[in-house]
Description:
- This protein folds into 2 domains: 16-249, Type I PLP-dependent aspartate aminotransferase-like (Major domain) (Aspartate Aminotransferase, domain 2); 252-380, Aspartate Aminotransferase, domain 1 (Alpha-Beta Complex).
- Helix content is 37%, strand content 14%.
- It contains 11 helices and 14 strands.
- The chain has an 8-stranded mixed β-sheet with strand order 1-9-8-5-4-2-3-13, sandwiched between helices.
- The chain is globular and about 75 Å long.
- Residues 58-60, 84-85, 87-88, 136, 162, 164-165, 186, 188, 199 line the site of pyridoxal-5'-phosphate.
Amino acid sequence: MNMSRIYLSPPHMGLYEMEYVTKAFVQNWIAPAGPHITAFEQQFASYVESAGAVALSSATAGIHLALRLIGVGPGDLVLCSTLTFVATANPIVYLGAEPVFIDSEPNSWNMSAQALEEACHKLVREGRKPKAIIIVHLYGQNADMSELSRICDHYGIPIIEDAAESLGATYKGKASGTMGTLGVYSFNGNKIITTSGGGMLVSDNLELLEKARFWSTQAKDPAPHYEHSEIGYNYRMSNVLAGIGRGQMHVLEDRIAARRDVFARYKAALGNIEGLSFMPEMAYGRSTRWLTALTINPNDCPVTSQELVQVLAQNNIEARPVWKPLHLQPLYRTKSYFSHEGSHVAEQLFEHGICLPSGSNLSEVQQQYVIDSILHCLQEAGLKV
Ligand SMILES: *Cc1c(COP(=O)(O)O)cnc(C)c1O
């Protein structure tokens, strides 16, 4: 079959993005200011039901601002999920603080409450109370926030939610990203909706958001000349890109439904094969299935997840391993890490996990080609499927 390359999670534009972008050009709002930014922020805040939102150049910028808003500075400790993309933790280091990595639990693949409790207990006892925590919601599924919040509240540690991958997910009826002091979303090209690059910071505390808006636009004091008393950043979203964001908001629910359908088709075709386990969806909420992720148990299946990624690449299909835990990264190997009940869950998920092409614009023909390629690979290895 002649197939062009099938990507893991490509952009998927709707019908209105170009119209908004054209409007930005017509009105000459080609700047990190303008009516699309305000409208996008309002629409976004209303979708997730937060008091407000600030549109930024990236989620990484949002995490940086969120940490500074909480007062994280040199020498502070910040707790952080270990199973995530490196951008979750880097802003901790931008501020001179130190990450402490927390393992996943096996059900949701998200932060383990047991490991978190152990970390808090030990660090507080040593007089090194963490200043903040970043909880990641992985691959479109919210972490079990009731448990995690209870622990954080007990120790008085403010929560930042890294919801870069979980826009549209819910937890007990609430929107992912709205249960901490601050929440951050990404509109990078591979996320469930995209502005090519961009991010959003949300909170119910409008004062915090006002400060974030100030810092993100170079911290200009109110004065007729250029007056500065604080360090700022150039982190604001462009009005052109906010136009793309407004268009994408029209189709967000469709994109979630499409990704869930992609997951359901993979599960129906591959779910009964010995050794393959799809990432579970927890009963407490809706996963968007941003990426379809599964593990392959080498005791039951003759093909490893790494081999499958390679075979799919030869078939012009982009699959990826699950995130490499940050405590294993050369960059962060020397930092502290707390495992889940002594079993290293994130390491296991990395070792055996694979993410399959999951785009909302993946056609059924393309997906069948991915499924057939997987089945063929397993058969070649001697598995009866
Ligand atoms: C994509 C991603 C980020 C970074 O988002 P940017 O908008 O590219 O800065 C941060 N955390 C997680 C978990 C991500 O998946």
